[in-house]
Amino acid sequence: MRKNWIFIPALFAVLLTNCKSANNTQKGTAIGAAAGAGAGALIGGGGKSSVWGALIGAAVGGGAGYVIGHHMDKQAKEIKQAVPDAQVERVGEGINMTFNSGLLFQINSSALSEAAKTNLEKVAGVFVKYPETNILIEGHTDDTGTPEYNMELSKKRAYSVSDYLQSKGVSSSRMNVKWYGESQPKVPNTTDANRTMNRRVEVAITANEQMKQEAKDGKLN
After folding, report:
1. What CATH number corresponds to the domain at position 136?
2. Helical spans, DSSP H, in the chain
3. Hey, which of 117, 196, 202, 211 would disulfide with 207, CB 3.0 to 4.6 Å?
4. Is 140 part of any domain?
5. Which residues of the chain have pLDDT under 70?
6. Per-residue exposure over 180-199, b if at least 16 CB sit within 10 Å of its own CB, e if not
7. Domain residues for 18?
């Protein structure tokens, strides 16, 4: 069993290296086909949040994965155009979107700023346009304050985002909300700049079962 745990991440690393010259859709297909849910369960550590695990674990791979990846390429482009301040990255067959909490909230607050509401309304418009996706929303903080306080703050902020998206027409049934406080830093909490990066709300956008089936049946445009 121990050898298997070493082999899967090693295979995944080779795939990423070999895919450097591929486009985003091709990367999603290759990663999904070879790694699947096993790699998704392992990739959450090492500076990557659990959003990455969810994205890789949701991949179906093969021809269906290629079609889903192409569909996600279009959606990622529209999200980036709608909200230039957000970090938007294609991962596997899904999309990872990251908001710096400083762009969404005041310090130690879970109330959305007016600018944040404007940006989230634009994102909601894209989500409504592409209904065959699931949306995971995760709240994260830096290590300032107690772990208990940070856990509660990350929860409130994640729900502030999901509640606002719902108010703009995104179905609550599509959204899953999680929070991790300071437990999943992107970078070490050693400088103010790093802590700013760690205070964030991350979003994972993945194909729902309907989209996966349509892709397998050749019915996904």
Report:
1. 3.30.1330.60
2. 2-18, 24-34, 36-42, 50-57, 62-82, 101-104, 114-129, 147-167, 192-198, 209-216
3. 211
4. yes
5. 1-48
6. bbbebbbeebeeeeebebbb
7. 2-216
